[in-house]
UniProtKB/TrEMBL annotation:
This is Protein prenyltransferase, alpha subunit. Residues 2-111 form the CHAT domain. Keywords: Transferase. Pfam families: CHAT. InterPro entries: CHAT_dom (IPR024983). It comes from the Bacteria. The lineage of its organism: Bacteria, Bacillati, Cyanobacteriota, Cyanophyceae, Oscillatoriophycideae. One of its GO terms (molecular function) is transferase activity.
Length: 115
């Protein structure tokens, strides 16, 4: 981590433990959506953690569908698109009100390091 900071990175997002790869992907994408809208890294992470904790399956389907729509004209690996579509289909089959990632295991382990 210190190598990234010494190398010129403004901040480093890391985890305190091994976390689920799917929930990590959603949290990081949401984090960057926040960060690119000019929110500080620490607030962007806080927002992403809160979002992941509270988002239900129905809202995940909507968000992921919009995400795929936004990537239509970008060079994205077709395998990644297929993986996201598979996740959308899984969420559609589950209880729409279920908050799949509300357990702190999925979001609490992320931290931002800044100078």
């Amino acid at each position: 981590m210190s190598a990234f900071i010494k190398g010129g990175a403004n901040c480093v997002l890391s985890t305190l433990w091994t976390v689920d790869e799917t929930s990590s992907a959603w949290l990081i994408i949401y984090f960057y959506q926040q960060y690119y809208s000019r929110i500080t890294p620490k607030i962007a992470l806080k927002n992403a953690q809160y979002w992941l904790q509270t988002v239900n399956n129905h809202k995940l389907v909507i968000w992921l569908t919009e995400l795929l729509e936004d990537t239509k004209h970008k060079e994205i690996d077709p395998h990644v698109i297929e993986l996201v579509q598979d996740e959308i289909n899984k969420y559609k089959q589950r209880n729409p009100n279920n908050k799949r990632y509300e357990n702190p295991y999925y979001w609490l382990g992320f931290i931002v390091h800044q100078l």
